[in-house]
Predict the 3D structure of the following.
Amino acid sequence: MISNDEIKHLGWLSRLELTDEEIVRYALQIEEVIKYLNKLDSISLSEVEPVRLKKKISELRKDDVKPFEGDVLEVAKNRKNGYVKGPRMV
Amino acid sequence: MVNLCSLTAEQVVEGVKNNHFSAVEYISQILERIEKIESQINAFTIVDANGALKKALSIDKKIRDGEDEKKIGSLAGVAVGIKDNICTKGLKTTCASKILEDYVSPYDATVVKKLKESGAIIVGKLNLDEFAMGSTTEFSRYGATHNPWNINYVAGGSSGGSAASVAALECTVSIGSDTGGSVRCPASFCSVVGLKPTYGRVSRFGLISYANSLEQIGPMGKTVADTVMVMNSIAGMDDNDQTTLNNGAPKYTTQSKRNIRIGLVKELVEGIEPEVSKCIYSAMDVFSKSDCKCEETSMKSVEFALASYYTIAMAEASSNLARYDNIRYGFESNPDSYEWNAYFAKIRSNFGEEVKRRIITGTYVLSSEYYGKYYLKAQKVRTMLKQELSALYKIYDILIAPTMPVLPFKFGEKIDDPLKMYMIDIDTVVANLTGIPAISVPAGFSKGLPIGLQIMADELQEQTLFETASLFESTANVQRSPKL
């Protein structure tokens, strides 16, 4: 059973402000989804290894710095004196 | 004058290169077509008419100047639409989300760069479910894409715009992305061909991540040959995507092969809509009559595929979408009066319904007390599926199944019941969980609505996939574009 408080907490962990109406709806819907995912619980997989990426670390390219042609700062809406501006930390 | 919009990519290249018509004439017809029917279909988020015409002019000039065939490119003049979650320099990439409504990509995705180098002309960006999360495009901020075969029905998703635009002749080929069936589902619903390549065959650099261990960019077209042409342009290793495979991509062809050993996965047909099932069994007959050895086969672990898929997709979505903080890019919203965390929570409440649902569920399955119960088990199911597949591919060259277990349905039919919506991905997720290539090819109609046949090959066996799809296409001869 997933409670409304649990959804509210998950929302906070995910940094999502939820309305009361959303909390109630998501609690019901996510409950249904999780019930379905519980299917995974019914199989024994102790012998099976989780899937892994094929490439070995040694095959990765060197991490060389290359110039980037585009202007990445241009897409930031709030800027000041060449800096990107965010909300206050404290 | 000939309707240039209905040509295949092969015919466009041939026509443009041999001066039967100019790239400008063809692109103008495409743009007129978009103008005429886009209000019914809603396949595009942005149409770049000026950019497309400018590129067409430059291609015509290259041909007039007698430039080298290679410089003109293998896709010279071909109108291509790009799913709006793939970066295109100087054009917006919105992911059909409020969160990225003003985001203009400062660079081209590798696939876009390669398509441009091949002479393809980008006509615009295509509609999708927000951040590619959905199976109908009903979750797009720009409204749903309508199915060209019946505009009261969904076009499928999440690459609904990519499929509908090709079926409605608004572009000749298109690019989609497939995380759990997002290329193949709309291809099936709109009666076009759609490919999800082997994981790592096509670079994902510049594709906005949703669930990166599952997704691949893939081509869509009216014919198998068109998807092959696009694959020959976009496949291959990329230094900017460390998951691309080192093996050089071969030049794919469309010769159709006979004597293919084919297995129909019975678990993927059981319990589906009877019209779809009937159509898939007749597809099997088509193969049998073409000297292929066909039989039903079983893949038991399919039962756990969907639970595994949604666990992984939502977990990865929850971590991938953590980056949207509206600071480096985003929409107009002054952060001045907010505390750090309150600002993020406020901003991120602008994600749509389905995206929020997936982020929260993903956060749930990743939380420490449930990690072993869901995520770890889901990753083990992938191994189990892979083991089962590798045994099956010792017996069969190809596995077949329906692409979708249902016919296209009406708007609103499943949107309020998330689990019901998720269940329709049952036949497509196996290829994403295991990394194998899979293609949807038009197989027939029921009540005027398209049905797709899904053909799946072993890892990196795209060539066998294309040969089988070509054989089916040339034998079954299914209609590709509706009258509009």
In short: The longest strand of chain A covers residues 79-80. The longest helix of chain A spans residues 20-37.
